[in-house]
Amino acid sequence: MSFPRDFLWGVSTSSYQIEGAAREDGKGLSMGDVFCQRPGNIRHGHTGDVACDHYHRYREDVALMKSLGIRANRFSVSWPRVLPAGVGPVNEKGLAFYDRLVDELLAAGVWPFLALYHWDLPWELQLRGGWQNREIADWFAEYTRVLVTRLSDRVTDWVTFVEPAAFLGGLTNGQHAPGLRLPRKEVLRALHHIHLAHGRAVQVIRQTAKRPVRVALSHVGKTVIPDTESAADIEAARHLTMFADETYNNAWLLDPIYRGEYPVADVPGLQDGDLKIIRQPLDFFALNFYHAEYGRAGANGPETVARPVPPGHYTAFNWEMRPEGLYWAIRFMHERYGLPVTVTENGMANLDWPALDGQVHDPQRIDFIHRHLLSVRRALQEGLPVEGYFVWSLLDNFEWAEGYEKRFGLVYVDYATQRRIPKDSAHWYARVIANQGTPL
Ligand code: IFM
């Protein structure tokens, strides 16, 4: 079976992880810029100061996408590059960069999906409480208005947030910027502010856009695969996927946005009218997928099952490879929220290097993506609406607390010279795209 003709074969990237130019052309500091300076926060003391130098090399990077036949790029905007203090005066040079990037993508036939927030909070706003301050919903709406006013004559696909569950790690376990360890109640308050900011941004996008738009939020969360495909195990896995007891589960992260309700009554900071703002109609469900576990209907209710993965089926991050989980994540999210799904991130960390022949051979990544695409194909065969699949990531890049050591790219980056080398997986992905998925 080939994939639908209009299936979007994409790659995702993010501003802080590739742009560099951290202090150029009037950009303000982001909380990442500050976090990376503190000794011990990032492996080997790496920073995003230079990263892949995409700020200067975006033309080359877009040309690479074009040469591979990539049809879409979810990229993100650095908030402090556009608004150095988070609010107030616009930095024209920063905004002009995204103008040029969008033009370059469109000229290359690569459809831009613009993510407003991929963890790049202006430091000035962090000093005012960041996500813990309810005013951030206003700040985010203002920032959104600046971008939509400038770019919506060309950009129609907007993503408000990338992975709230992951960047909240910066408030729970200190792993990400700003490096806090707050009590659960305060984390949930911050999450409520993220939801409010999301709702306000969707309103601004719809009111301000110059063309019809499609809006989504890129979600990452728990996926539980049924141990058998019996009705009882599927129901148990569905329940665990949504409600398994974590600091915040999928229901906390998603139900307010799609159903206008929280899974419990005592939400810190919830005010009258908030849920109406948060529940804005969205156009597709943007799903990021990396992890999954197994669950079943036990004698005392749904329970997770320890299922060892075959030896070696781990990525360089020690993340277990469970490609079958992508099918279940698509299915459960579609069943609960009723929207078509686009997989906006999926990929693996590896220890890649150029071989003696000068090429970068990464058979594991090819196998990894292949297996996940088979899950997407299963979903399509069963009639689930899947509109696209985006590999994380186009380039090797700055992997947050892990620095540059492990690599996620289809394209190898030699950080000393900034030379790009498309890996075997890039050539393979290009063939898959050119053949509309038929070699799978
Ligand atoms: O690099 C990250 C990205 O910023 C968000 N999603 C997961 C990726 C891999 O860890």
Written description of the protein model:
The chain is of the alpha/beta class and 440 residues long. The chain has a single domain, classed as TIM Barrel (Alpha-Beta Barrel). 39% of the residues lie in helices and 15% in strands. An 8-stranded parallel barrel has the order 1-2-3-4-5-7-10-11, surrounded by 4 helices. Helix 3 (54-68) packs parallel to helix 5 and helix 7 packs parallel to helix 10. The mean pLDDT is 97. Bound molecules: 5-hydroxymethyl-3,4-dihydroxypiperidine. 5-hydroxymethyl-3,4-dihydroxypiperidine is lined by residues 14, 17, 163, 166, 288, 345, 392, 399, 408. 5-hydroxymethyl-3,4-dihydroxypiperidine binds at residues 14, 17, 163, 166, 288, 345, 392, 399, 408.
Summarize the structure.
The protein has 440 residues and is of the alpha/beta class. The chain is built from 16 helices and 13 strands.
Low-confidence stretches: none
Number of strands: 13
Total helix count?
A: 16
Distance N to C terminus:
9 Å
| Domain unit count | 1
Q: Could you give me the name of the CATH homologous superfamily?
A: Glycosidases
Small-molecule binders: 5-hydroxymethyl-3,4-dihydroxypiperidine
Calculate the mean pLDDT score and round it.
Answer: 97
**Lateral arrangement of strands in the main beta sheet:** 1-2-3-4-5-7-10-11
Into which percentage range does the β-strand content fall? 15-25%
The percent range for helix content is: 25-40%
Largest sheet geometry: 8 strands, parallel, barrel
Instruction: Assign an overall shape.
Output: globular
Pairing-aware structural class of the strands and helices?
A: alpha/beta
